[in-house]
Amino acid sequence: MVWPGSRELRMRVLFLPNTPSNGPSARYRVYQFVPYLAHNNIKAVCHSALTPFIYSKFSPAGGWLHKIIYFTLSALFRILALLRLPFYDVIFIQKLVLPHVYPFPEVLLCKLGKWLGKRVIFDFDDAIYTVSAVRKKTLIERLSYPERVQRIIGLCDDVVVGNEYLAHFARKYHKNVHLIPTSIDMTKYPVPKFNEQKAGPFVIGWIGTPSTLPYLYSIKPALQEIALKHEVVLRIVGGKDYACSGIEVEYLTWSLDNEVEYICSFDIGIMPLTDDPWSRGKCGLKLLQYLAAGVPAVASPVGVNKDIIDDGVNGYWAESTRQWVDKIERIISFPAEHINMTRLARKTVEDEYSLAANLNKLIKVLSG
């Protein structure tokens, strides 16, 4: 419950995000809420597992040396947070910093936090208890500690997850599981203006990270077929080196400043997924961003995508190559017919997946 008239400090919360704010999961699960918590008399401080420089400089995708530096520093930064615990009422741990081994930094935080009488909350928005199915397993993934997530869940007072699939998993190990969907700050997304006289190629857009780019290969034949019949460009934000002959591909470098602008430049947003445990745990961020921007969206009916999209009402589902071609062509050929769809899409986000809709849920969890 929010007490807007009160000036008294209600609590002190130490957020421990697994990355700085340029990491999408931490940004949408933690950082964007901080100023709004302050407005509700909650002192919230973020102690990231990495600095922005380290996060951008030593991406795990850069090879073994980068991985060693990245994860060693992540663990060290999280352990250093132990020194801050006495000064806060609530400790909010976002994900694990060592995704595949025994989670000793989080175990230390949980045990010391409980010993000091603090409430400890664990948040995750991916199926971090399994591994991605769209790439080959690494050696460390093959040797991973299988009970790593269950171990932390059992040590916390409360668990927060991003969708019902993750909640089902967490409820096996804890009774206090709260579902707070990934939330969009709608103040950053202008009300879209429909332009019936669009010039130039039709922009099929995708936003993500290099690790999620392989999902695009599942619809490669559909994109190639569409390019044979229509003037289109595939605009990729946050990824590169997508091999897809027969279609023009444009790569844009993601930044926090240009994220919304790039999404608003799409004529259609796509979110293909494979149907596997890792993909079912995803929380639909890019799909929600498309809907918030008023961009017609086509997505695989996997996991939370099935909850977000009402097929044919606020967006489209597509499974087979034929369905991907048909749904995308429908938007290309009849853009005016999708004006109401985009309005309903934006309303879906406002009502269920916006920061405004979910702020009180977070405050309630923090309050205990």
Task: State the main characteristics.
368 residues, alpha/beta, Rossmann fold, 2 domains, 6-stranded parallel β-sheet, 16 helices, 12 strands, 15% strand, globular, disordered N terminus, transferase, Glycosyl transferase group 1, glycosyltransferase activity, glycosyltransferase
Briefly say what this structure is.
This protein has 16 helices and twelve strands. With 368 residues, it is α/β, with parallel strands linked by helices.
Molecular structure report:
The chain is of the alpha/beta class. It folds into two domains: 170 residues, Glycogen Phosphorylase B (Rossmann fold), CATH 3.40.50; 167 residues, 3-Layer(aba) Sandwich (Rossmann fold), CATH 3.40.50.2000. It contains 16 helices and twelve strands. Helix 4 runs parallel beside helix 5 and helix 15 packs parallel to helix 16. The radius of gyration is 21 Å and the shape is globular. It starts with 10 loop residues before the first strand and ends with a helix. The N terminus is likely disordered.
How many separate helices? 16
The overall number of domains is: 2
Please give the largest β-sheet. 6 strands, parallel
- Shape assignment: globular
**What is the name of the CATH class of the largest domain?**
Alpha Beta
How many beta strands in the DSSP annotation? 12
Secondary-structure content class: alpha/beta
Mean pLDDT: 91
Query: Based on the structure given, which CATH architecture of the largest domain is correct?
Result: 3-Layer(aba) Sandwich
Poorly predicted parts: 1-6
Beginning-to-end CA distance, first to last residue: 11 Å
CATH superfamily of the largest domain: Glycogen Phosphorylase B
- Based on CA atoms alone, the radius of gyration comes out at 21 Å
The strand line-up of the biggest sheet is 2-1-3-4-5-6
Helix content: 25-40%
Which range does the strand content fall in? Answer: 5-15%
CATH topology of the largest domain: Rossmann fold
Could you state the order of secondary-structure elements as H and E?
EHHEHHEHEHHEHEEHEEHEHHEHEHHH
GO molecular function: glycosyltransferase activity
Organism: Desulfofarcimen acetoxidans (strain ATCC 49208 / DSM 771 / KCTC 5769 / VKM B-1644 / 5575)
Protein name: Glycosyl transferase group 1
Keywords: Glycosyltransferase, Transferase
